[in-house]
Amino acid sequence: MDIVGAERQQGWRTSALLAWRRRCAKSDHYFFVNDAPRTLALIDCFDAEYTSGIDVLSCEKMTLKGTVSCEVPMRAACWLRFER
User: Fold this and answer.
1) Do 81 and 52 meet the contact criterion of CB atoms below 8 Å apart?
2) Total domains in the fold of the chain
3) pLDDT band at 65, cuts 50/70/90?
4) What b/e string do you get for 38-70 counting C-beta neighbours within 10 Å, with b at 16 or more?
5) C-alpha dist (Å) from residue 38 to 60, 72, 77
6) Are 47 and 26 a contacting pair, CB within 8 Å?
7) In whole angstroms, how far apart are CA 75 and each of 46, 54, 65?
8) pLDDT reported for residue 43
């Protein structure tokens, strides 16, 4: 599991304060927790190429061109699943 802010170099980065990634065989799961006012989390991934993405909680498909964004409501969380 990759956690933003860990000491080792990560293959991804985000503007979110609390975020982590869970790598699986064919997909990656990104989790964002927001304890502040509504925020836009920006995600850049350097170590994987994705074919599709979905916001798991809303079932909304995502566009995965360049920097990906996810709006995280106040005192809420966001869970994204990206297929490799």
Assistant:
1) no
2) 1
3) confident
4) ebebebebeeeeeeebbeeeeeeebebeeebeb
5) 18, 6, 10
6) no
7) 29, 21, 28
8) 92
Q: What residue numbers bound the domain in which 28 lies?
A: 2-83
CATH of the domain at 8: 2.60.40.1180
Distance CA 59, CA 44 (A): 21
Q: Which amino acid, one-letter code, is at 20?
A: W
For the segment 3-58, what is each residue's pLDDT rounded down to a tens digit? Answer: 555 555 578 888 887 999 999 999 999 999 999 999 999 999 999 999 999 999 99
Question: Would you say residue 2 has pLDDT above 80?
Answer: no
| Size of the chain, expressed as the number of residues it contains | 84
Tokens 């979905």 found at: 54
